[in-house]
Amino acid sequence: SRRNAVKGKTRAFETSSAMEGVVRVLSRLSHLGQELQATGLSEDGVTTALSSYMSDNLLETPPYWVASAGEALWARLQEAGAGLPHISRALAAIITHSSHDHAVGAVELCFGLLAVDKCPTRGIFDRVLCSSYLGWLRGVQSSGPTAKKRAGRKGKKAAALDTDEDEAMDVDQEHPSPLASSLAGFAGSLRTLGLADQPDVVQDAASTCVDLICKGGASDPQEVSAAYGVLLSLLQPIHGNPRDLCAMVFRHLASGLAAMGGGGGKVARAEVCHQLIAFASSALGQSPSAATESVAALARAVVLRAADRADARTAAVELAMGLLGLLGPAEGEAFVVFTARLSRTPKVSQRMMAVDLAPALLAAAGEPFQTSAAALAAAAATPGAGAGPLVAAPPGAICLAILAQRCGDRAAPVRARALGTLAAALSAASSFNGGSSREESLFLRALSLAHEVRLQRQDEVVGRTPGGALPSPCFVSPAGAGEPGGTPLTGAGAPTMGRTPRPGPTPAPRASCHFTMPASWAGAGGADPGAAGLGWLLRTARRRAGDERGAVRRGAVALLEALLVLRASAARPLAPGPADLAALDAALGDALVSVRRAALGALCALLPVAPEAAAPLWARAGLPLAADPEASVADAALG
């Protein structure tokens, strides 16, 4: 009991000492704020006033002293005559005009005060202090801490603690950097400090945090996580209209996509993808109705802003699919329509992106060949839809149509990519969606009609939407200016933060679209054609096997192989025709090694399922390749 009493007295003494130390520092800051108010905030006046106060290490107060002071601190400050507005003015001046070390100390003290129980947040963190803090964050972003400085800090910490590097990393996790701590404190303050009447501050905070995330100012994982925490706090209704806030924050993120993970390789891109998806998931959990449109818009921005490189397209597809996985079926179908329109733009890079997206969308859909009620309604509302035997095309059929129709693209890279991707999809048809025979039948029926899927337009009147937001109907391409097939936004401009859009005139009708296909898709045309209905695609493959570009010929041979094997393995086998064998014969003698190797693989795959047709070609053109000057081709022939 005596020992406990001693410990209690010690704790009381430490608490009293902490309280007195904090009150003393804050009283000095209050006097500094009064002096600054008297001299004004001119550069010379601030510098002169700060010099006399900062020379005696005014801010060297252990941060835990502030936290341990408790809610009694506010009564003690009032007794000491220290005014919170004056303290706030002094902290803002130190952050803006003092050295880096003093500014860091002021930031830590500021958010230490905000974390104290029953803190009058608005009395301390006013507009001036908030602007000073955001300016400090921008300075951190522009300077960007180098790896050398970080390594130096880590080395000093490890040496001081007499630990190895791994233990030093553990210490870093337990004691986050001043930037991470301040961002976490800022996010906490934003949960109670409403900024609906200060939309410019909200915009500034969002753009600053996005710059920290995208441009390397916050390179530590804890700092990036804390910056995302600030963005999430900004989406609360106390800061304005949630839909407008989501549109603003996600638009800033979309603008910074190009800089995120730049030069960091696959690991950095994967981390960026994970962080963005996690943030989008949190935003949807916090404001599902407000964030849905913005997350869908970010998925579109991801694919539109991707660089024209294979690795960038792959990363964009992964990120877009991750974002779509957070949304519902309606948004997924809208993205399929958007991808189909993307495949028809003048830009080669966008058509290539559509070809990369199509198989991912097909694989991700739960019921890709199930037509939604919205699609049926859109097809029924199309003028003249009842005049011909047309039905609404399901998402899976649209994805296959994208690939099939890009096989004849003007650009050789797009043709080659579409042919190869379609060949891979066809080869996997037997295992599609769990290997169900019904799903395989639907897949083949949709592919047999893919060349007849058509874009249909209709006019509809859509109400006014806030500027910067995106329309949400499933069959409206929700695209902003510059997006392919985009419909211009009514009332476009700066977001109306925290206020309701003013009523305006009735907007003009704008185009909507959906896709239709022949009624035989729904079974109205008789028996299921199965593999026999792919004759048009077989003709396309034969024609492209003679293309002038080697990559196109290689893709065409792969598609030819998949088609011939599928037809020969069907319930009613169809043997390769003379034209098919002639195309393979020509490919076996192609000047390019990759084409000869692909043709040899196709012939070897065809031998077990159609030996009568393939054996003569093997003896005439396949076996002689055992003497091919290229070792890989000769080994394949002998193997």
TrEMBL record:
InterPro entries: ARM-type_fold. It comes from the Eukaryota. Residues 147-157 have a biased composition (Basic residues). Residues 141-170, 480-508 are annotated as: Disordered. Residues 480-501 have a biased composition (Low complexity). This is Uncharacterized protein. The lineage of its organism: Eukaryota, Viridiplantae, Chlorophyta, core chlorophytes, Trebouxiophyceae.
